[in-house]
Amino acid sequence: MSDLSEPVGTSDTTFSHVKPGDTPWRSDGLRDFFLYRDLGVAEATKGRVIAHLVKANMAPKKGTGWHRHEANFQIVIMTKGWAKFMYEDQVTLVEAGDCVHQRPGITHYLFDYSPDMEYLEIVSPADFKTVEVSPATQDIPVPTPWA
């Protein structure tokens, strides 16, 4: 595999077209309270980038916990519903239509989301690592109960 920092040429990637029924929602992703649907980008880019849809599967109880990702690039585009994150010391409401660029290494915590929450996440490299970090000193707001 070539260096992930090298420019991607047409010979380094393949064409990919994934339709909604082509890949299943899976429960074996990073968080057990979410479902994940692969969009074929990791395979097409030989691991340079991953794109997947993430949606709520269970009501929020404790959230993701404080963590950071070892990644060069990460965006979240909320396609349905909403989610509340702590980005370092700031509560951030991300609603349908919003796009968040999570700078490399930012400490964050997803603590609340709507039952219909769904977002597109794009990360480079595809095999990015998640690192749990010590809890912040501030309190985490309480999640909104689902009806």
Automatic annotation (TrEMBL):
Q: Give the span(s) annotated as Disordered.
A: 1-21
Show which residues constitute the signal peptide: none
Q: Name one Pfam family in it.
A: Cupin_2
- Name the InterPro entries for this protein: Cupin_2, RmlC-like_jellyroll, RmlC_Cupin_sf
Report the SUPFAM superfamilies cross-referenced here. Answer: RmlC-like cupins
What domain of life is recorded for the organism? Answer: Bacteria
Q: Where is the Cupin type-2 domain?
A: 57-110
| Protein name as it appears in the record | Cupin domain-containing protein
